[in-house]
Amino acid sequence: MRRLARVASLAALTALALLDGCGKPQFSDAEKKTVASLALNTLPALKADTTNQYADVPAAAALGSTLFFDVGMSRDGTVSCSTCHKIDRQFQDDLPQAVGVGRTNRRTMPLAGVARDPWFFWDGRRDSLWAQALTPLENPLEQAGNRAAFAHYIKNRFGERYERIFGPLPDLSTVPANASPLGTDAEKAAWNAMPASQADDVNRVFANIGKAIAAFERSIEPQQTRFDRFAIDLATGSKPEGEAAFSPEEILGLKLFIGKANCVTCHNGPRFTDNAFHNTGVPPVKDLPPDRGRVDGVAQVQADPFNCFGKFRDGDESACRELRFIVKDGQQLVRAYKTPSLRGAATRPPYMHAGQFSSLDEVVAHYSKAPASIEGVSEVHPLDLSDRERAALVAFLKTLSE
């Protein structure tokens, strides 16, 4: 009983330390500024994608939506983009590794706000949303199709819709039913036998498929949460009330997030991500193929024919600044993975690039201990958080989800 009384007394003292005499949360001016920078109302308007002239064309978005949910956009007619990006699960799938035609080696990322990213996938191996949308279509473990088959499928099923948006389809009458530079040996041979002009025609149709899907995905934006209502009240000097009011534990967690725990260094801005790549010592998953993260992603994005320097980009090269100044090598790229947005994270376990951790408690424990990376150098250092502090951080993270 005495121990319970001491715990209750400590909790009461903590609450008093975090609230002023009027019951308002106590934050310094610097802390208030940081909290305000994380609120969703500071998210700027979505910029135009000059590499995709159809990005904001409603008809393109409508076609993209159709293709996103169409299982016909796969080799065996059973897998669509929405197989892994489920509309009722924040456009992800709750699995440690995504499963399409086969099981992949990475976790599905949610799509809210994805159009604002400069790089795509956990390793940044694509540099535009439309180039990213193309990749799963031909991945043998995801949708496992090939670009010649997709061109024929578009012509046969969506020809009129396609032509209203993108103009006349090329003559595909002599294009093989199945051909791709990335497919089976037979598909590669068929692709290599095609005239260069015919391959360009197929690639153009394929690129436009990605541009339509990207136009749809641009509409997927993050939603306001309890944290945003709290942040607005804090910024305006109002006393948070109702669901906007934070418990003392949640306030402590927020203070740790922007202070001692230093989570805000990487999880910053209204989407809680710096859009960069970091080695944080996350362990590999047994029996999965070797995965070195950004260091391999750099080589892939440079080799991608659909990257910003390629012939299928709309607009001029002024949009290619990220690719032009890409960091191409260095120890910091080894086992570095993209900083995910934390919005909605509490309701989409497991966590990390291959689902290594099953709960937010495990994630926070990992950062508290900061084990060394198996390769490269981890950027994080032990936080030595107490059990109470770790629990408070998790409590705060839950305010980022409805």
From TrEMBL:
Cofactor binding remark: Binds 2 heme groups.
One GO term describing the cellular component: periplasmic space
Molecular-function annotations in GO: cytochrome-c peroxidase activity; electron transfer activity; heme binding; metal ion binding
InterPro entries assigned: Cyt_c-like_dom, Cyt_c-like_dom_sf, Cytochrome_c_Peroxidase/MauG, Di-haem_cyt_c_peroxidsae, MauG/Cytc_peroxidase
Cytochrome c domain segment(s): 59-210, 237-401
Post-translational modifications reported in the UniProt record: Binds 2 heme groups per subunit.
Amino-acid positions noted as binding heme c 1 in the UniProt annotation, renumbered to this chain: C81, C84, H85
Cofactors named for this entry: heme
Signal peptide: 1-17
Keyword Protein biosynthesis attached: no
Primary site of residence: periplasm
Residues binding heme c 2: C263, C266, H267
Pfam families: CCP_MauG
Keyword field contains Signal: yes
Subcellular localization: Periplasm
Keyword vocabulary terms for this entry: Heme, Iron, Metal-binding, Oxidoreductase, Periplasm, Signal
PANTHER family: CYTOCHROME C PEROXIDASE-RELATED (PTHR30600)
Name this protein carries in UniProt: Methylamine utilization protein
